[in-house]
Design brief:
Layout (H helix, E strand, L loop, with lengths): L1 H9 L1 H26 L10 H24 L4 H26 L5 H6 L2 H12 L13 H11 L8 H23 L11 H8 L1 H17 L7 H17 L13 E7 L10 E2 L2 E2 L2 H7 L3 E3 L2 E2 L6 H11 L9 H4 L8 H7 L3 E6 L8 H8 L3 E3 L19 H8 L9 E6 L24 H25 L6 E7 L9 H8 L5 H6 L5 E4 L7 E3 L3 E2 L3 H9 L18 E3 L5 E3 L2 E4 L4 E4 L5 E2 L1 H23 L6
Parallel strand pairs: 1-8, 1-9, 4-11, 5-12, 6-7, 6-8
Antiparallel strand pairs: 2-3, 4-10, 9-10, 13-14, 14-15, 15-16, 16-17
The protein binds (2R)-2,3-dihydroxypropyl phosphate (GP9) and manganese (II) ion.
Manganese (II) ion (MN) binds next to helix 13.
């Protein structure tokens, strides 16, 4: 080793070559580590996709080198060193963000991370950091040593020589990149950043999403083409024709509406026992009093909880990147609170946390809520979950009743919080999870058990206060609790095979709707998503909502859910947009994509229509 250092010292050319090569491979290895530690890419390691991703990343690093080689002369070693630090910082941010949100950082996401969000997320992130992440800094001693040794030993290079050096690097980089680019199906990139990251690497994904962002900014004229206009018109026409009403139409007309959006409550815990005890006894009990929809998928993207709120209150899809709450808060929307307000309802949103989080203070107004009851309106007398920093769901529910004027019909939208990642707050919570004690999944189950207890209290209180039968009561989960990095624990717990279609089918959230004076429970296994909640409610409450992209789950024969990343589940097949694989819905056998391509693209049109409405603020017109 010492000899190598001495040789390098004696011959700065060798030293410099070593430094460049070391830089290239250090960054490449970190990128590959990112791709696998986040599960964007998976085994087998030498699969076609993984190979494409590696080659593309290598090519992009060469292009970065070409830039450094051209721009920096005597200071090029320093430039490599600083670039390494910057790219490493980006990769560390990417890794932690991805582990939490399962999404690649983009400019909209980045610009939306105000300090509060950063703070809260930071703490979640600390539980996501992995020992193997040391790989991100393991090269630093060599980079520093090289910098010290070479700093004053590399000489000036004439401009034309630098240009040639740079052009060679650029040419090799571009040709290598083009050799893989043509082999990748790029149309799916529009729906999923993860897909571009998986196939061409995270650096490409950043480049691609930045390009889209700039294009969007430059073309900020809000015009749409004639074809787009027709597409939107036709879609709403078809949707409205499909929503014929019928079953349960108007059954809750004039009644109160209470919606509880339950933080991170996924379907797999419903009705399940662990060591002979029910995980969610109160929700299970509520199934016997309500209509239980057991085949509903969440459709959130980068806006997580806020996306679920948006889906439920507008029946539009959230945007693919960042949070619609941050990016399009100035838009005009047709929404559930607006319609009910017109009908003389008071409309309230309740959430026991900082009012600015997810830009709710602004967005609830945009959506038409009269009152937003947030953390500052509660007495902070009990903290549970989320590092013990958030008002407990129990106290949240207990205090909320007094804030409603029950002499008038009202719509109350409640967003719970205690069952929020990281769940380790609940490690010592008194609910026996047996072998799962101390694991991520075990802690989640405990958190969900606690959240269920609070829901049970809320329902009992509604009954005690004679509100239960005057109300259409809707409960649903907002999004996943188990990220893909913890997938193994869930597969093992449920005794399932590790497969992408099975994983997609696990992305379900419970939806329960109880109408006034309901005597007979019902289970409806129609496939749907959160986007269908609003049209289902509007039918039951007896009003028209012609701007919904969803279906009325009680009056349709359609069976489908479109995820925000373009994955589609129907009763016939599961289409995974990332891999473009299609599986038989019932037995999981692989099907031929070509057979479904037309239908898939017509489903994906829904995302396109939603995006156009939001990004061009079309409801304003
Ligand atoms: C905070 C809460 C958390 O107010 O809604 O949001 P999430 O991190 O689940 O998107
Ligand atoms: Mn949430």
């Amino acid at each position: 080793m010492l000899q190598v250092v001495r040789d390098i010292k004696d011959n700065p050319h060798y030293g410099e070559a070593f430094y460049w090569i070391f830089f290239i491979f250090a960054i490449l290895i970190k990128c590959i580590y990112f791709q696998f530690t986040t599960n964007i890419n998976n085994e087998p390691y030498f699969s076609f996709t993984n190979l494409m991703m590696t080659i593309s990343t290598f090519a992009i690093i060469l292009m970065i080198c070409a830039f450094i080689a051209l721009v920096f002369n005597k200071k090029r070693i320093q430039a490599l060193f600083v670039t390494n630090i910057l790219l490493t910082a980006l990769l560390i941010a990417d890794t932690n963000f991805f582990r939490y949100y399962y999404d690649v950082i983009t400019i909209p996401v980045f610009s939306n991370l105000d300090s509060r969000i950063m703070n809260s997320i930071n703490q979640s992130i600390s539980s996501l950091i992995n020992v193997a992440d040391i790989i991100f800094i393991i090269d630093f001693p060599v980079m520093v040593a090289g910098l010290i040794v070479l700093k004053n030993r590399v000489g000036e290079i004439q401009f034309y020589k630098r240009t040639i050096r740079s052009l060679v690097l650029l040419l090799v980089g571009v040709l290598t990149f083009l050799s893989v680019y043509g082999k990748v199906e790029i149309t799916a990139f529009a729906y999923s950043n993860n897909y571009s990251a998986q196939n061409l690497g995270v650096f490409y994904s950043h480049f691609y999403s930045t390009k889209l962002f700039i294009r969007e900014k430059l073309s900020e004229d809000d015009d749409i083409t004639y074809e787009e206009k027709e597409m939107i018109k036709n879609m709403f026409e078809t949707k409205n024709k499909e929503r014929t009403g019928g079953r349960y139409s108007g059954i809750a007309e004039g009644k109160n509406l209470i919606i509880v959006q339950m933080e991170a409550i996924q379907s797999f815990i419903i009705g399940r026992t662990i060591n002979g005890k029910e995980i969610t006894p109160n929700l299970n009990k509520f199934i016997n009093e309500s209509i239980y929809f057991d085949n509903i998928y969440y459709q959130t993207a980068g806006g997580n909880t806020s996306d679920a709120e948006f889906l439920c209150n507008t029946s539009l899809y959230p945007v693919a990147e960042g949070a619609v709450y941050y990016r399009f808060y100035e838009n005009t929307y047709h929404s559930l609170p607006k319609v009910l307000k017109e009908k003389g309802y008071d409309t309230y949103a309740f959430h026991g946390y900082d009012e600015v989080f997810w830009n709710r203070n602004v967005m609830y107004e945009t959506l038409g809520f009269d009152k937003y009851i947030s953390e500052k309106d509660y007495e902070l007398d009990e903290f549970v979950g989320w590092h013990g920093e958030a008002l407990s769901d129990m106290s949240f529910f207990r205090q909320s009743f007094d804030k409603i004027d029950t002499n008038k019909p009202f719509y109350g939208f409640f967003v719970t919080l205690s069952c929020h990642h990281p769940f380790d707050y609940f490690e010592d919570y008194d609910f026996d999870v047996g072998e799962l004690q101390g694991t991520y999944l075990g802690n989640y189950i405990k958190a969900a058990h606690y959240a269920d207890k609070c829901i049970g209290y809320f329902i009992d209180e509604l009954k005690r206060r004679d509100l239960f039968d005057d109300t259409l009561l809707v409960l649903y989960g907002d999004h996943k609790a188990i990220p893909i990095v913890n997938a193994k624990e869930l597969y093992e717990f449920l005794g399932l095979e590790e497969r992408e279609d099975i994983w997609a089918k696990l992305q379900k959230v419970p939806l329960m709707i109880k109408y006034p004076n309901q005597n007979t429970p019902e289970v409806i296994s129609r496939i749907g998503g959160q986007i269908d909640i609003l049209p289902t409610i509007s039918n039951m409450m007896g009003f028209d909502f012609p701007y919904a992209l969803g279906k009325d789950l009680l009056n349709t024969d359609k069976e489908y859910a479109i995820f925000r990343n373009g994955t589609i589940v129907t009763d016939e097949y599961v289409y995974i947009n990332c891999s473009r694989n299609v599986y038989d819905y019932s037995d999981g056998t692989m099907l031929d994509l070509e057979l479904f391509e037309e239908e898939i693209s017509s489903y994906l049109k829904e995302l396109r229509v939603s995006d156009l409405i939001i990004t061009k603020d079309l409801f304003k017109k």
